[in-house]
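Design review, sub-item: ligand-bound model
Attendees: FS, YL, KQ
YL presented the inputs for the zinc ion complex:
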Amino acid sequence: MANESTRKISLKALVNRGNKRVIFMESGHEFVDVLLSYLTIPIGTIIRLGRYKSNLAAMGLGCMNNLYASVESMDVQHFRTEACRDMLLCPRNGAGSTLKSLKLKIGDCDPTQYFKCSNVSCRTSPARLSYYRSVRCIRCGNQMESKRNLLVGSLNGVFVKGLARLIISDDLQVMPAVTSVSSSLLMKHGVLDSNTIEEVTLNIGVNEVVNLLICSFISKTPLTDVLLLHRPLANLIKNISNQPICIDYYSARVGDMVYDEANIKLKLIISKSKKVVCYAEAGEDFVNLLFSFLVLPLGFLLKQMQFGTLKGCIDHLYKSVQDLDQQLLKSRYSKEVLVNPKLPSGFCYQNHPLGIGTATFDIAAAEIVDPKSPSGEDRNQGFLKGPAIFLVTDNLFGSPVSPVLINNILNKMNVCITDIEVQTVLLGREEAFSLLVASFVCDSALTSVLLGKIKQER
Ligand SMILES: [Zn+2]
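KQ shared the predicted structure:
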């Protein structure tokens, strides 16, 4: 069996000789499945992969990166279990073993790998399995360290049918490989003469798949940038960092908010002169919500975003799956996993304002332990212990409340005590969605989403 890191997919692309741009790439199910699997990847995994590759803050994913860093730096005693932190830093993919047959797999969490207690006297039927080795066995209290792989293979295609042929445009639209599609792409690129195009073979391995994913957040031409020209991500980021980010979406959404569901209360500490939120003081319910963004699949986020909100073109991928002919996909379930991706069991909790569902898998003769509550007694709670008070900065760095930290934040922002006012806000479903989108596209999520709310209420 080929080593994961050396495995490659070779594909033919048509390239415009003049401007050295990929017009389109032709692919069978193998690469399209890999591309579509992006939609199932949890945001926390994307942040982790992006950190190895580049400076995420410069990509405009700064707030998400701060959420990830907050989890990393928070003492484990604030989490309900040790495994809660693993859930956020290394979230499981809700598509689970569906992804086992992908030719190129990214992320270091194996979707088929589970753990069980190695103690023979703890054997039960059905077997109790956990996603993480940090989960403690409820019988003996030891960590569940013994590996157990559950193999569920799907032959001949993961999402797309085995014989399907598809075309992928430079801006990640996936379309059927028919003449009308290819000729319209050629026309779009102004190619009228076949002498101006050349056929190029592109070799794609795991490294390229990760770069393509990260690049798709910042570039409208990721196939050209990553696969054809092998442009370093850092160079691409340099070129885009001065472009303004579209924030129309959530400022528009805040206008027609529904207030009756608002149930998370927080205090905003606002600079009157600068009209910005310096920080928020909130209970664990608010920080649970923010941290839960890391476990959400990318497709769930893209579903909430207005088309064109992001600097890159990853939203084209989402939209093309929505529009893709059902005939090309393996089943209705394949489409559902991609356009309405869900969380693995145990990753959600009760009264979550975003209302994302949990994926149900039939794992024969096994019961999956909730990492937040191995005994199952209070599985409806979030990741953090409560009651507790946390401090969240405007760019979503969360930590336990501390007067020293408050002083540092105000000093850094050059805000004096007399310039401060405190406002209490209630946060419901609409604001939670707006915060999710804002945390991905701007650096001052609290100001952008919640300051507008206060103005409207006055
Ligand atoms: Zn045990």
